[in-house]
Amino acid sequence: MYKIAVLGTGYVGLTTGIGLANFGSNVLCLDIEKEKVAKLKEGIMPIYEPGMEVLLRENKKSGRLNFSTDIGEGIKWADIIFIAVGTPQGEDGRADLTAVFNAAELIGKDINGYKIIVTKSTVPIGTNEKIKKIISSADTGDHEFDVVSNPEFLREGKAMYDFQHPDRVVIGTDNQRPVEAMRKIYRPLYLNEVPFVLTDFRTAELIKYSSNCFLAMKVAFINEIARLCDVVGADVQVAAKAIGMDGRIGSKFLHPSPGYGGSCFPKDTEALAAFSRDADMPLMLVETTIESNKKQKQYMVEKISKSLGKLDGARLGILGLAFKSETDDMREASSIVIINKLLEEGAEVKAFDPQAMDNAMKIWGDRITYGTDEYDLVEHTDAVVILTEWNQFRNLDLEKIANLMRGKLFFDFRNIYKPEEVETWGLKYIGMGQKV
Length: 436
Ligand SMILES: NC(=O)c1ccc[n+]([C@@H]2O[C@H](COP(=O)([O-])OP(=O)(O)OC[C@H]3O[C@@H](n4cnc5c(N)ncnc54)[C@H](O)[C@@H]3O)[C@@H](O)[C@H]2O)c1
Prior knowledge:
Elements lengths: L2 E5 L3 H12 L3 E5 L3 H8 L10 H11 L2 E4 L2 H7 L2 E4 L14 H13 L4 E5 L7 H12 L6 E5 L9 H6 L4 E4 L6 H7 L1 H5 L4 E4 L1 H32 L3 H9 L20 H14 L5 H25 L6 E5 L14 H11 L3 E5 L4 H8 L4 E2 L3 H5 L4 E4 L11 H7 L4 E4 L6 H5 L4 E3 L6
Helix pairs in contact: 1-3, 4-5, 5-6, 10-12, 10-13, 12-13, 13-14
The protein binds nicotinamide-adenine-dinucleotide.
């Protein structure tokens, strides 16, 4: 049985560690954040990810899953080391690879025999070659090792399901030696006939960025169509459904929203755009996607402002802060741009999210107030604004909401209600590209 170390216990590292332990490997998850590791040792998830805590506890109990901050010891112990540290947006949109290169250096310093280093972090084209060089130059013992590019495609909120049911597993290498080990650790997927795409480093790196940028482009596209529907009086809900029925297009990612956010699409579109500019081959569709998404967030504020007349002094109740439902992640969430703009224009904001309140408080502190639930939130507001499509917001007691509010405006920026069901209660419905 392989001994696997995972460097970084964020959304991806933790899912990978728990997932691989669940597939039968012996896994040690490593992180520099002591508090996070202490929680994990207690069987407590440091992030909200549905269904994962049970697997964390089960695999810990079985002895196959352990946590440590002793990175050096972990590197020495492991046969296979996953790098799953963050690659946030850096200067001019480029990916900040500091944590990845640090991890490579630590591996090089403590390598003590043949090891396979697997890059899970999303990294620009050419990075795995650099990782190889860093490990070699930090290694004083001339040990053999292989590097594998194995990008991750999971969605937050469905991380474990996606880990266990990927559409494909991408394995980028510069030789065949590590391939068999990769097949073995992913054996349950291999047996389930999940396609394995075997390729080189650069293609694997490109696949990850291109996939995310394509999806971001699809989101931006349907948001542009929704904006057009607003002015020409067409219905984006019907249109998106019909467009998605075309097998060449597909129905996924055709849902109007207040713009994409999260820890991947914004930074990955920026990173690929910057990378392509550096390579003197700018990707115009990606550049435009980024601009279109910024416009969408701005457009949400314009919609609110236009309906209210003025934002100064208006009381707004915001339902949903996380960048999407089923996660507490607020990195690059549309809510941040939208709420900041509303505050700048003099509005009073009260907000509620089922999971992201702690993260929200770190962002806004006492610049906004916080609801304890949906109904506490809407009390005495001029308008309610749905930004995140949490299930619990899909079946609100609209009569109660109408009675609690001071005003009548109901902004549904995820199109989770039909205009007529909201307007029955005397509220004014404003959705995205919907005929009212
Ligand atoms: N979050 C997603 O949905 C998702 C999906 C696919 C791919 N990715 C990619 O996976 C990577 C990780 O993303 P994430 O969202 O899990 O990040 P994250 O910020 O949630 O977690 C990164 C973790 O790495 C730790 N870390 C940093 N340096 C370290 C080191 N030297 N040794 C050990 N741990 C270290 C940090 O303390 C943190 O806990 C990124 O490249 C991201 O683009 C993310």
